Amino acid sequence: MRILHLIYDDLDNPWCGGGGSQRCWEINRRLARHHQITIATGNFPGAKDEEKNGLRFIRVGSAKNYLLSRLSYTFGARYVIQKEDFDLLIDSFSAFAPTFSSFFTDKPKILNFYHLLGSHALIKYPLLGFSPFWAERYAIRSYKNIVVISKSVQELLETKFKKERVYFSPTGFDSSLLDLPVWEENYLLYLGRLDIYMKGLDLLLEAFSSLSPRYP
């Protein structure tokens, strides 16, 4: 099968390089044993069209700066969809670099959906937030088959948006990490992007305030 995977992020992208790109890499390098995989990512400094581990990478848009990279990816993805010959399209959705892929092909397609941004986009960006808010709604409503990485998002899509084909596929991890030594210290550790709207830091701080009297 020929699979075209749209995802803005890439492991080598200096502006992102997040968990979505890691998941994309791990899954697709395994699928490449039996299928032809093309991954279309956003452009970034030093990026080039290339093949790695049996995966074909296409860079879409401008590498001049982060904002232009995302905007040009949104506008350029449609040409990749129209040009490439594929049997299945996978779109790893990003509200800040949407491709509107369902509008440009009638072929079988899957929306890979990580989290529900919802009204947080309007809170974080009062004026500019309408675009990602609308893009997310459009993507959810235009796709029949959606893959999510958390049960909570699955339940939201099934109840709030009445989606019938939402499939839960949790993110894996490197099992060798289980062999690392473990120890406990008297602190609370958060490892991730400092984004109160998407990373739940408000909940973490609330939990910390409740725990701190017991662990001074």
Automatic annotation (TrEMBL):
Domain of life: Bacteria
SUPFAM superfamilies, per the entry: UDP-Glycosyltransferase/glycogen phosphorylase
Entries under Gene3D superfamilies matching the protein: Glycogen Phosphorylase B
Name listed for the protein in its UniProt record: Glycosyltransferase subfamily 4-like N-terminal domain-containing protein
MF (Gene Ontology): glycosyltransferase activity
InterPro entries: Glyco_trans_4-like_N (IPR028098)
Presence of keyword Kinase: no
UniProt domain Glycosyltransferase subfamily 4-like N-terminal: residue ranges: 18-175
Lineage: Bacteria, Bacillati, Actinomycetota, Actinomycetota incertae sedis, Candidatus Hakubellales
Record keywords, A-Z: Glycosyltransferase, Transferase
Keyword Oxidoreductase assigned: no
